[in-house]
Specification:
The complex is a heterodimer of chains A (306) and B (391).
Chain A (H helix, E strand, L loop, with lengths): L3 H8 L17 H13 L3 E5 L3 H6 L11 E3 L5 H17 L9 E7 H6 L2 H9 L4 E7 L25 E2 L2 E2 L8 H6 L5 E5 L4 H13 L4 E6 L3 H4 L6 H10 L6 E4 L2 E4 L10 H4 L10 H22 L1
Parallel strand pairs in A: 1-2, 1-3, 3-4, 4-8, 7-8
Antiparallel strand pairs in A: 5-6, 7-9, 9-10
Helix pairs in contact in A: 2-8, 4-6
Chain B lengths: L3 E5 H11 L4 E4 L6 H13 L5 E4 L3 H13 L4 E5 L1 H6 L1 H9 L5 E6 L13 H5 L6 E4 L3 H16 L7 E6 L7 E5 L3 H7 L16 E2 L5 H33 L6 E4 L6 E6 L2 H14 L4 E6 L1 E3 L3 H7 L5 E6 L10 H10 L7 E6 L9 H17 L5 E3 L5
Classes of the chains: A alpha/beta (306), B alpha/beta (391).
């Protein structure tokens, strides 16, 4: 089992459907996630992409980084666009206008497009039971517009609209529990993932693709630009998020929780917070507050998965 | 000849969508559009129409789902009104710029506040610049015919643009009219199957909706402008084809008793029916008046309008919308601009009424014409005014 990951890499397709030549920042965790997800998704897909980093770095007219059918329209509507594609494929196949090849629809957006402005459209598409996989690239703020806070920004993080200052310690509230909101829609599959655990992530994407009905996967996407981390540390930062319990990896199949990467003993959150410029103003007091909350949340998750 | 029956106009619009064999309907309920989408939902539930009905959670998502559906190559229909059209606003621009031939019926309604669900054309005027082809219906027959025509125009390979079919809320949508229905065999002759040239297809990957930096954005806008203007000739051609198959002829600017008319009313939508009676009455009393009806709002029919007002000395544009703090009625403003500098340009007067569903009677159109005649005699300024309003 120890060597499984060495072997698993050989099973991963070498074809790149998200091709080199995009314009993402150096060390972007999100592009790594998209690249790996595309390997798991394969070619029989239509992707609907929300406005955001991924759309901007991949499609400056007239060039494109996508080798699969891909559509971008607006910021808050990507799940609704995916609904339309799904219904069109169903109707056209039923009426014999196109061959029924079981093409899957994938919608993707950042945390702003998912947690905030696109939440209603996503909720509607999940509730209606469209056959689609939603991938949320969660880099915990509006990075494309220059690091503004979203409801995915963690407590205490400095962003340009939740700045730390003489009277503020940065983001005041806790990160919204978006996977729980997805679970509350009673959809068949919800998961969290990280490109720092590539095989776990690709397996989840595959599962989400194969599961009929809506699936939601939230991928922690390390953003050196917004998090103020070293550009060569993105994979390590993703691992620290999991090892400290800040971003646990789990999946929820038909309402049943399972932690997919158990952490025996959580590392102190300090290990994750310290390398990040967005947390450097935090007092020991604030850090212990964060530590307590992480412990509490992790225990609650373990309880659910028990 | 199709069978003439008494039918609510909303039902006739749904019937047109059914005859077009739409693949996908995505809609959100809003008064006074509801009867249209309720009927389509019923047709799907009863198996009368083989389509996917997406009961979306907002109009923003309705139009967004239409984008996805149309891009995947499905014939796509929706309907909305007033606030719903406003909520769709940003999505409308995307539909036209991405050349997605969606057809949408709009039950024209006032905009809040105060909340008002009744007939008004403020919603239509607010989406003037969204790049859609926009047709305006005067009666139920036109609503049925224009909805079918809209699919033929939208999907024409040289057009590929979305089309709005405007029908005054309640005045049209909720009345039962005698309407000659369309026979399926003729519809099949008139409307070929939809074949989108480059749909989203896993076998032939395309990228749709790339962003345009300053170096190319202007060119994309120009391409859209050229294409929308060019569509007018094709719209006229489709009207001719419709005439051949169904026997009813439509034009961008419709003339009613205009022979030798020195004073002419110009209306949009259901006002036309009432104004015709006013013209009949005044002509019977020996007055030299006629009526022009604008059927095509975008692309704007400049040449047709100029030809139609030849010999007219006084043109009275009646709007069902107020451009607050601006030049008065939007149609009035555009028509003044369109005719500016023309040789023998008529005097142009603007009147605004019927806002938020207020009835406009035959007598009011007659009064307006009398008022204009007085204004001409006294040399009063050619300004706009709201009529039938207190205070």
């Amino acid at each position: 089992m120890k060597n499984y990951n060495v072997y698993a890499a050989r099973l991963t397709p070498s074809a790149e459907n998200f091709s080199p030549g995009h314009r993402a920042c150096v060390g972007c965790g999100e592009t790594l996630a998209v690249r790996l997800a595309c390997k798991a998704i394969g070619n029989n897909v239509i992707i609907s992409n929300a406005t955001g980093c991924m759309e901007i770095v991949s499609t400056p007219l007239p060039s494109t980084a996508w080798r699969v059918p891909w559509i971008h329209t607006l910021f808050e509507n990507t799940a609704a666009v995916a609904s339309g594609v799904d219904s069109a494929l169903k109707a056209l196949a039923r009426k014999g206008k196109i061959p029924d090849r079981g093409t899957k629809v994938v919608a993707m957006g950042g945390d702003g497009a998912t947690f905030d402005i696109g939440l209603q459209a996503l909720s509607g598409a999940m509730e209606r039971g469209h056959d689609f996989l939603y991938l949320c690239w969660d880099n915990e703020a509006y990075m494309n517009t220059g690091i503004q806070r979203s409801s995915a920004t963690p407590f205490g993080a400095h962003t340009t609209t939740s700045p730390s200052g003489k009277k503020s310690y940065g983001q005041h509230n806790q990160k919204k529990n978006m996977p729980a909101i997805a679970v509350a829609h009673n959809i068949p599959y919800v998961a969290t993932a990280s490109p720092s655990y590539p095989f776990d992530m690709m397996a989840k994407v595959k599962k989400g693709m194969e599961m009929p009905g809506p699936a939601y996967i939230q991928v922690l996407s390390v953003c050196p630009t917004g998090w103020r981390t070293q550009v060569d540390q993105s994979v390590i930062m993703g691992r620290l998020a999991v090892e400290t319990g800040v971003f646990p990896l789990y999946e929820v199949v038909n309402g049943k929780y399972r932690i997919t990467h158990e952490v025996e003993k959580l590392r102190p959150v300090q290990d994750y917070l310290k390398p990040q410029g967005r947390f450097r103003h935090l007092t020991p007091d604030a850090i212990s507050q964060i530590q307590e909350k992480v412990k509490e949340d992790y225990a609650a998750l373990k309880e659910k998965a028990a | 000849m199709g069978k003439k029956i008494g039918i609510e106009v909303s039902m006739a619009i749904s019937e047109a969508a059914k005859l077009a064999d739409v693949d996908v309907v995505a809609a959100y309920p809003i008064t006074p559009q509801t009867h249209i989408v309720e009927e389509l939902a019923r047709m799907v539930a009863d198996g009368d129409l083989d389509a996917e009905y997406i009961p979306v959670e907002s109009e923003h998502s309705a139009m967004s789902a239409c984008l996805g559906s149309s891009a995947a190559g499905a014939r796509t229909f929706t309907a909305t009104a007033g606030q719903g059209l406003e909520l769709m606003h940003e999505v409308l621009y995307v539909a036209s710029a991405m050349r997605l031939p969606i057809v949408m019926a709009v039950a024209n309604r006032a905009l809040s506040a105060p909340l008002n669900v009744w007939g008004d054309q403020s919603d239509m005027m607010a989406v003037r610049d969204t790049g859609w082809i926009q047709m305006i219906c005067e009666n139920g027959q036109e609503a049925l015919d224009s909805t079918l025509i809209a699919f033929r125009v939208a999907e024409h390979p040289e057009v590929l643009l979305p089309v709005m079919v405007h029908c005054d809320g309640f005045y049209l949508t909720h009345v039962v009219e005698p309407i000659e229905m369309l026979e399926k065999a003729n519809v099949t002759k008139f409307l070929p199957p939809f074949k989108y040239p480059l749909p989203l297809d896993a076998d032939k990957p395309v990228t749709m909706g790339a962003f345009a930096p300053p170096v190319i954005y202007s060119e994309t806008r120009k391409a859209q402008e050229v294409n929308l203007r060019k569509s007018k000739a094709i719209i006229t051609q489709v009207w001719d084809e419709f005439h051949k198959v169904f026997g009813r002829k439509y034009r961008a600017v419709e003339k009613y008793k205009m022979d030798g008319a020195k004073t002419a009313l110009l209306t949009l939508g259901s006002f036309g029916e009432t104004a015709m009676t006013a013209v009949d009455n005044l002509q019977a009393a020996g007055q030299n008046v006629g009526l022009l009806k604008l059927r095509l709002w975008r692309p704007f029919p400049f040449e047709e309008l100029k030809a139609a007002v030849k010999g007219v000395e006084n043109l009275i544009v009646v709007d069902r919308c107020l451009s607050t703090g601006g030049p008065g009625g939007p149609a009035y403003s555009e028509i003044r601009s369109a005719l500016y500098g023309e040789p023998n340009q008529p005097r142009i007067f603007g009147y605004i009424g019927g806002l938020g569903g207020r009835d406009v009677m035959v007598s009011e159109f007659e009064n307006i014409i009398r008022q204009v005649e007085t204004k001409v005699k006294t040399g009063a300024a050619q300004e706009f005014e709201l009529f039938g309003v207190r205070g």
